[in-house]
Design a protein that fits this description.
Radius of gyration: 17 Å
Helix content: 55-70%
Strand content: under 5%
Shape: globular
Order of helices and strands: HHHH
Structural class: mainly alpha
Length: about 110
């Protein structure tokens, strides 16, 4: 499937909500990374952020918004191909994911 010229429509309110969540995560994770580099935050701080800010649920919602748009606007064959591509990602805790760096505890 040629994906370069295809377009998918997402309702503006849903696109804005996803964009707001992603922006919060990018800015917050950048700030956390800076704090870790300066020694004022540790891995527990990142874990607390992920839990307190409900990151997993909010990212799952973003994935759902995009998936629902794809499901509604593409053929079953196209969606099957996209699902297969997504399964090729790198997932934490699997052999295909890079191991933690030597300076971080496992």
């Amino acid at each position: 499937m040629d994906m370069s010229s295809r377009e998918i429509r997402i309702p503006l309110d849903e696109a804005v909500a996803v964009l707001q969540d992603l922006n919060e995560f990018v800015v917050s994770l950048d700030r956390l990374g800076s704090r870790q580099a300066s020694g004022t935050a540790d891995d527990q701080t990142v874990g607390t952020f992920i839990a307190d800010w409900d990151v997993a649920r909010r990212l799952a919602r973003a994935r759902h918004v995009i998936s629902a748009a794809l499901d509604a606007q593409l053929s079953e064959e196209d969606n099957t191909e996209i699902d297969a591509l997504c399964e090729q990602g790198r997932f934490y805790g699997t052999e295909s994911a890079p191991p933690p760096s030597a300076d971080q505890p496992s």
